Amino acid sequence: MNADLEKLASKLKIATSYTDGGLKRKEYSVSDKVIKFFVQALGYKAGNEKQIKDSIAEVENKRWRQALEPIYVCNQNNLIIDVVSPDLSDIKISAKDKSGKETKLDYTYMQNAENKGLFYKESLRINTELEIGYYDLTVTISGKKYETVLAVAPDKCYDVLTDKKIWGYALQLYSVKSKRNWGVGDFTDLDDFIKLCAKDGADIIGLNPLNTLSHDHPENASPYSSISREFLNPIYIDVEKVPEFETKDKKDVEAVLKEVKSLELIDYGKIYPLKISVLEKCFERFKAKKSGDRKKAFDKFCKTYGEALDNLALFQSIYEVKTKEIWGGWRAWPDDLKSPSAKGVKQFAKEHQDRIDFFKFMQFEAFRQFDKVSETIKESGLKIGLYRDLAVGVGQDSAEFWGGNELFMQEAGTGAPPDAFFPAGQKWRLGTFLPQALKDKKYIPFINILRANMQNAGALRIDHVMSLMRLYVIPDAYDEGTYIYYNFEDMLNIVALESQLNKCMIVGESIGNVPAGFLEALADKNIYSLSVLWAERWESGWGDFKQPQFYPNNAFASVATHDIAPLKMWWFGYDIEVSASLGLIANDGEKLSAYHKREADRQKLLSALDYANVWPKDRFRSGNYIYGESYPEGIEEAVEAFVAKSASPVYLAQLEDILHITQMQNLPGTDRDKHPNWQRRLTVDLEDLANDSAYIRCVRAIKRER
Q1: What percent of the chain shows pLDDT beyond 70?
Q2: Are strands 650-653 and 555-558 parallel, antiparallel or unpaired?
Q3: In this structure, are residues 439 and 490 in contact, taking their beta carbons and an 8 Å threshold?
Q4: 452, CA 20 to 30 Å: which among 44, 69, 502, 547?
Q5: Using one digit for the tens of pLDDT, what is the confidence trace for 208-235?
Q6: Are 230 and 449 in contact (CB under 8 A)?
């Protein structure tokens, strides 16, 4: 790579080399073709030497062409902005808060002026104390007014934890099995589960992302590849709780309902259309009532969510029509439909207003039922309540991408470099924000996504939290990618600000390739980490299991995650067999090696449980269970107690471990044609859970340690 291309990449925050997340920490040099691809993706040219030099000059001159940045994100105790002008001698600054109150701000020059030709750039420190929040800033320079936004961020994220250690569950809502639901968990199940948790002394329920998935392809069920992270998945609506529902609606679909409820796996292709057919009837009855409180509430909802809701409903309506005649998603649509502002969209909306309103109605009802869940949490007194999950990206074939095409990188998507679990890396193809476009939009799209997922939540898990600093992005046409860097300080401060404004704790999922110093920066901002039994080991995951007192004291701890084999599956090595059968393990030699390592790990786990003295008194282990010949009686209680005993302030149990489930919710690196990801139902009905002996014993074991 020549020096100018490397310089351009550095200025655009494109990594020219990186170290992977594998155990051997291999160093990679990024090829010129990948660097040039991302230079172009970020809006510059690098086709030849002249273009590269011109692009360097353009980047260097960019700040000098505007008096102010589009937004300044500052810590409350360090309010600094910079201004560019030919004359900086006469400056006045005022700030208008959310209520419209305007305040004249006092400032001092920081005496670090630079100049370029006739222009000067100087930093100003604002001395006036401001509460956290967003301010419209007006800077008057020599009589000419310029406007920007000042985001005043707190030192720390919101926190409600004290010295008392709490516990709860990590729950995949879709997987909840109940006698009354329609083959998939819903908001009423969640409401009922909260009441059970409150009775048992739990204070937190972690959820999978609840965001909107594809209406026309419900089998694309990954909650981490939504079409919008601002809205909810209508599949979670309890149709029998919709005010317009009538008993005959259920009778009309009784045969199909009986079938889907009897299946071991969730059949999204039947359940989703079934629910939609009933919701359509409810919507017709809703429309028939021209007035009333519910109609007023709907109109208010539509006004509140405005353009974002309009875009989602428009996208879903157009997609529903076009998917019958055009293959390839929204990018294959006619040009006059390829964005909300395209000339054909307005005409389409006129012709399909009823269907657009139906999609809005589903969100209206989903939000209403989800708000009811929030009320139950308040009544039950859970300390944290819902712990929601924000996916790192959005599907490329999504309303979010369609509605903000200029915000996203084209022909490339988020993935992951090689690491210990995925030596070849991962190509997720998720939509990736353009760093500068995001800042030019004053970070509003990012802020809106944070707010949407903090709604009704006491804590928010940010999936792949390293995305606040950098994302590994892979061009669609290539197998290799590189890291694109964001303004980490801005992103971190916005997270802290929204956390405080919404009274929502923040947890960062940081499994993978974590940059040096990154976790320390999160901890300094009071962002909790995640701690998993299988990762809390000495010698980079190969040594003994750490005893509970050595777990991090700023983490949410659990036995596993939705991407890791449940306890019983792990014990018998069924996950190794599944991976081998799908070609994820290269050959018989590697498979045998994996089994040998698992045998050693089983013995290390048993030893750790012995040392911690967590076996139930009436089920103390009776042997070494060599080669996983049987499942140790009481091991699930011992493991739950072991991690619950940890120094971590929050412990999240998984029903998959407690109920002896032997299949994974999701097998990373596979699509649904290879493995039934996101389709597993729990094995015990929700109504029977409180009387299940395994559940009772595990709750008792957890409460002894919490």
Answers
A1: 99
A2: parallel
A3: yes
A4: 69
A5: 999 999 999 999 999 999 999 999 999 9
A6: yes
> Inter-axis angle of helices 343-351 and 293-322, to 10 degrees?
120
456 neighbors 431 (Cβ within 8 angstroms): no
Residue matched to tokens 């967590």: 614
Task: Sort 239 into a burial class: Cβ within 10 Å, 0-12 / 13-18 / 19+.
Answer: buried
d(CA 643, CA 473): 35
Q: What is the pLDDT of residues 368-406, one digit of tens each?
A: 999 999 999 999 999 999 999 999 999 999 999 999 999
Task: Return the exposure string of 192-222: e unless at least 16 CB atoms fall within 10 Å of the residue's CB, then b.
Answer: bbbebbbebebbbbbbbbbbbbbbebbebbb
Dump the DSSP string for 616-662: -TTS---S--GGG-SPPTTHHHHHHHHHHTSS-SEEEE-HHHHTT--
SS3 536: coil
The pTM of this model reads 0.95
Q: Are strands 204-207 and 17-19 parallel, antiparallel or unpaired?
A: unpaired
Give the CA radius of gyration of the chain: 27
**Pairing between strand 144-153 and 71-75?**
parallel
Q: Per-residue pLDDT tens for 475-494?
A: 999 989 999 999 999 999 99
Question: How do strand 91-96 and strand 204-207 relate by DSSP bridges?
Answer: unpaired
Which two three-digit tokens encode residue 290? 């021209």
What's the first-to-final CA gap in the chain, in angstroms?
56
3-state secondary structure of 399: helix
Q: How many CB atoms lie within 10 A of CB 576?
A: 22
The secondary structure of the chain in percent helix, strand, coil, rounded to multiples of 5, reads: 40, 20, 40
Helices vs strands, H then E, count in the chain: 21, 26
Residues with Cβ within 8 Å of residue 648, at least 6 apart in sequence: 165, 531, 551, 552, 553, 554, 555, 556, 557
Give the CA dihedral 585, 587, 591, 596, nearest 10 degrees.
-130
Both tokens assigned to 296: 């007023």
Q: What are phi and psi of 146, to 5 degrees?
A: -130, 150
Structure tokens at 398: 């999504």
Compute the distance between CA of residue 628 and CA of residue 595 in angstroms, rounded to an integer. Answer: 10
Indicate the Cα dihedral angle 402, 407, 408, 409, nearest 10°. Answer: 140
572/595 Cα distance (integer angstroms): 9
Helix, strand or coil, per DSSP, at residue 330: helix
Structure tokens at 663: 């299949």
* Cα distance between residue 694 and residue 689, in whole Å: 9
Using DSSP bridges, classify how beta strands 166-171 and 650-653 pair: parallel, antiparallel or unpaired.
Answer: parallel
d(CA 543, CA 603): 11
Residue type, 44: Y
H or E stretch at 92: strand 91-96
Block residue for tokens 């390839």:
328
> Torsion-angle region of residue 699: left (phi > 0), alpha (psi -120 to 50) or beta?
alpha
**Contact in structure between 36 and 46 (CB atoms under 8 Å):** yes
